[in-house]
Amino acid sequence: MIGIRCLSNKRGFTLIEALIASLVMAVGLFAAGTAIYAQFTALNENREKTIATLTAQGEIENIRGMKFSDILALTSFDEEDAPGLEYLHYGSGFGEGDIAVDPVAVDPDGFTGDSNIKKVSVTVKWNSINGETLQKTMATLMTNDGINKQ
Predict the structure, then answer these.
(1) Under a CB-based contact definition with an 8 Å cutoff, are residues 91 and 76 in contact?
(2) Radius of gyration from C-alpha coordinates of the chain
(3) pLDDT tens for residues 20-67?
(4) Helix (H, G, I), strand (E, B) or coil at 7
(5) Closest by alpha carbon to 140, among 64, 35, 33?
(6) Rounded Cα gap, residues 45 and 130, in angstroms
């Protein structure tokens, strides 16, 4: 006698189970993709901050090698002076560098001290990947007489 098998005993995935599994996998892949994108954005932002810091530090070192009288006339620098600016974008061009030379205040009343001492600030500006304007500022003190004069 030939037995007839019932098809209902064979188990498999139903269409709904397959759709739910696909949805769970899609949510997981979306979360992983979002995390990877956030990491690449943070990596790029840290790269830009490092370039800006090294550019500002390099410009400070260049200024320290200049004559005091030449420092007083400084106002800005560009990618020819600081090659790191070409890796940063600001507006339609490269990053931008500003230099400020200010007198050093000796007391809180606004009395400015010796004219032979100046505070030199170097600022690098750029636009982040999100379009936000960022800047890094570094400062040093410069003296006309040098640091070891008696």
Answers:
(1) no
(2) 31
(3) 999 999 999 999 999 999 999 889 889 989 999 999 999 999 888 888
(4) helix
(5) 64
(6) 9
